[in-house]
Amino acid sequence: MAEGDAADPLAGVYDPTGHGRPLFAFFAAMAETERENIRESTPEGLDTAARKGKHGGRTHVRPRRDPPGPYALQPVRLRAAP
Predict the structure, then answer these.
(1) What average pLDDT score do residues 23-48 get?
(2) Residue 74: which residues within 8 A CB-CB, separation 6 or more?
(3) Do the Cβ atoms of 55 and 49 come closer than 8 Å?
(4) Per-residue pLDDT at 1
(5) Secondary structure (3-state) at 19
(6) What integer pLDDT is reported at residue 64 of this predicted model?
(7) How far apart are CA 80 and CA 16, in angstroms?
């Protein structure tokens, strides 16, 4: 292993000359196309969900107001030391 290979995360994978250049150009084009598809379909999906009455995000968490059970913590009265 050469000295410069350890610092390069794409050592042996990315070759800017030869077969690597068109391969990575193809991957870049596919990624850009997929990104455009996602950007177009996301607002459409949100609109469809809103029409159905469904809204994304976390549900609102409310504190429980159940009556204390037999094992609930009870306040303790401290007595003065004799």
Answers:
(1) 92
(2) 68
(3) yes
(4) 46
(5) coil
(6) 64
(7) 82
Matching residue, tokens 């990575």: 24
35 has pLDDT over 90: yes
- pLDDT the model gives residue 55: 78
**Cα separation, 39 vs 31, whole angstroms:** 12
Name the band, by pLDDT with cuts 50, 70 and 90, for residue 22: confident
Pairwise CA distance, residues 44 & 60, whole Å: 25
Dihedral angle at the C-alpha atoms of 50, 52, 56, 58, nearest 10 degrees?
130
Q: What are phi and psi of 32, to 5 degrees?
A: -65, -40
The Cα–Cα gap between 24 and 13 comes to 10
> Locate tokens 């000359």: which residue?
17
